[in-house]
C-alpha cells in the first residue's frame, strides 16, 4: 500500500499543479536545510537524496527545473548539473529571473510551480500558478503559499512537491508500480 501524495494538497491546487511544465525552486532553505557551512575557504551544502530522486522523476516526464538563488556555490552548481536543473545564482530579482526562464522555455506562469521559504522568494509567487512553502518557511511565506508541505526544506519538502505533482497527473502510482 502506498501513501497518497495529494492528501494534504487542496483540490484547486492539484488541478493547477497538473498543468506544470516548469518547477522553480529556491536553494537555501528549500533544497537545503538553510545552513551555510564553511570548510576552510569552501562552502558545503547538504542536499536530500530523496529530493533529488523526486526531481529526476519530474525530468523523466518532461518537467523543466530551475533553481533561483541569491547565493550559490560550487556544490549548488554540481548538484544542479547532476539533476539537469538550470541554475541561476546571485539573483537579486527572482521574479525577473523566473520570467526570463519562462520565456526561454516557452512556459507561461499558468504552467509554473514555485517553491520558496523566505521573503526574498515572494516575487516568484507572482509568476507561478502554484506557490509552495516548506514546513519551516517563515510565517509570511506559509500564509502566502497555496500549499505548505509537511516536511521542512532540505528534509523532504521538495520530494513531497515532486510526488504531488506526479500524482496530480496520475503518474505517481505508475512509478510506485515500477512502470515509467
Question: How would you describe this protein?
Answer:
It is a single chain. It contains 8 helices and 8 strands. The chain has one domain: HAD superfamily/HAD-like (Rossmann fold). Strands 5-4-1-6-7-8 form a 6-stranded parallel beta sheet, with helices on both faces. The radius of gyration is 15 Å and the shape is globular. Helix content is 38%, strand content 16%. By secondary structure, the chain is an alpha/beta fold. Helix 2 packs parallel to helix 7.
A few lines on this structure:
This protein has eight helices and eight strands. The chain has 180 residues and is α/β, with parallel strands linked by helices.
**Largest beta sheet: strand ordering:** 5-4-1-6-7-8
Name the beta content range. Answer: 15-25%
CATH architecture: 3-Layer(aba) Sandwich
* Mean model confidence by pLDDT: 92
CATH topology: Rossmann fold
Instruction: Assign the structural class, choosing from mainly alpha, mainly beta, alpha/beta, alpha+beta, or little secondary structure.
Output: alpha/beta
Order of helices and strands: HEEEHEHEHEHEHEHH
E-strand count: 8
* Top-tier CATH class: Alpha Beta
- Total domain count: 1
C-alpha-based Rg, rounded: 15 Å
Largest sheet: 6 strands, parallel
The CATH superfamily title = HAD superfamily/HAD-like
Report how far the terminal alpha carbons are from each other.
19 Å
Indicate the percent of residues in helices. Answer: 25-40%
Amino acid at each position: 500500500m502506498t501513501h497518497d501524495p495529494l492528501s494534504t494538497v487542496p483540490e484547486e491546487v492539484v488541478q493547477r499543479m497538473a498543468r506544470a511544465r516548469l518547477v522553480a525552486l529556491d536553494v537555501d532553505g528549500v533544497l537545503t536545510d538553510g545552513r551555510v557551512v564553511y570548510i576552510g575557504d569552501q562552502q558545503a551544502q547538504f542536499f536530500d537524496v530523496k529530493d533529488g530522486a523526486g526531481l529526476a522523476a519530474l525530468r523523466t516526464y518532461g518537467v523543466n527545473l530551475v533553481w533561483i538563488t541569491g547565493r550559490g556555490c560550487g556544490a549548488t552548481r554540481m548538484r544542479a548539473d547532476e539533476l539537469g536543473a538550470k541554475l541561476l545564482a546571485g539573483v537579486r530579482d527572482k521574479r525577473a529571473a523566473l520570467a526570463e526562464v519562462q520565456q526561454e522555455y516557452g512556459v507561461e506562469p499558468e504552467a509554473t510551480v514555485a517553491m520558496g521559504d523566505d521573503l526574498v522568494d515572494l516575487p516568484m509567487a507572482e509568476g507561478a500558478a502554484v506557490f509552495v512553502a516548506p514546513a519551516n518557511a517563515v510565517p509570511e511565506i506559509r500564509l502566502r503559499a497555496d500549499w505548505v508541505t509537511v516536511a521542512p526544506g532540505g528534509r523532504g519538502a521538495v520530494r513531497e512537491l515532486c510526488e504531488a505533482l506526479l500524482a496530480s497527473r496520475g503518474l505517481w502510482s505508475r512509478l510506485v508500480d515500477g512502470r515509467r
